[in-house]
Amino acid sequence: MKRELLEEYQCTKDIYEVLTAYKNFEYNIKNIEPLDKSYCEEVIKYLAKNDIKIVKINDKNYPKELLNYDDMPSILFYKGDIEPLNKNENVAIVGSRNPTNYGIDVAEIITKYLCKKEISLVSGLAKGVDAVVHKISCDKNNYTCAVIGSGIDVTYPYSNKELYKRIINNGCILSEFPLHTKPLSYNFPRRNRIISALSKRIIVVEASEKSGSLITAGHGLDQGKEIIAVPGSIFSEQSKGTNKLISDGAIPFLSLDTLRETLSISIDKNENMCNNNRDNTWSLSEVESRIFENLSDSPIHVDDLISMVNIDINQIYKVLFEMQAKNLIYTLSGNYYAKKYTSV
């Protein structure tokens, strides 16, 4: 409705006059007063001084994905470059503020792979998984958007101050909240609907039963988005939420093939890094080389690999993920792995 009104009348003053003249209008807006001109001038100066920009719902560079939903803000404050949100495919990656080592490892692997594919990544600049996503995106010079639950000029958490600056140079910070708004707890569930609305798909890495990431996933479901969840141990509090999402119908992230299939990512020729010539394993790390030498085209269980390579169980899963990202191995059901041979 607000978009249609702005398209019809262009000016909020005209809208005000039309609505107040309508006798049956159910809301009393006659006591609304125009903003003081001097106040507006001060705000404009503040925005310019702090390099803060505003985009209105009827502007061409307003994120087009948000236009599909009635509850989106009429204006957004942002710092950085907002244009790529309308040019690229956006994927949201969210998760626990207190992730396990497993959660961090998986978040890193997923983020690095999507950065390699130049997919724009959206998250919330919180501690934990969000910070991992933004940091790696900046490291890889990949576009990232942080949707925050405070005013655009309020950095929260403060520990992410330097990351906040880096994101501005590699993407944008986005907020619907007025300037100087504090990071109050009820702001975050509200901002989560923007994270999900901006994105084609939402990946939840780790989430407890009461995690805000589940709110993002819930908004995504309401918006018709595809939800991908990383399964975890049934004994881990940080995986209870993601495991529940999977039981409710979310796509389980079982390997990087999950991303290739759901995002329709074609395998780059450069991903086929090795073939049956052992000389091509020079680009592997020492641990990767040991694993690769013990694999064949016959599936081998991860427990057998651990015995063969003499490696810690927590480390081997990370290395196997990385090897799959390089398209070196097949991941099969039941924790079996096999070497991938490619034609010369």
UniProtKB/TrEMBL annotation:
Signal peptide: none
Residue ranges of domain Smf/DprA SLOG in the record: 54-262
Pfam families in alphabetical order: DNA_processg_A, WHD_DprA
DprA winged helix domain segment(s): 283-334
SUPFAM superfamilies: MCP/YpsA-like
Family matches, as Gene3D superfamilies: 3.40.50.450, Winged helix-like DNA-binding domain superfamily/Winged helix DNA-binding domain (1.10.10.10)
An individual GO BP term: DNA-mediated transformation
InterPro entries in UniProt: DprA, DprA_WH, DrpA_SLOG, WH-like_DNA-bd_sf
Family: Belongs to the DprA/Smf family.
PANTHER family linked: PROTEIN SMF
Name of the featured protein: DNA protecting protein DprA
Species whose genome carries this gene: Clostridium cellulovorans (strain ATCC 35296 / DSM 3052 / OCM 3 / 743B)
Classification of source organism: Bacteria, Bacillati, Bacillota, Clostridia, Eubacteriales
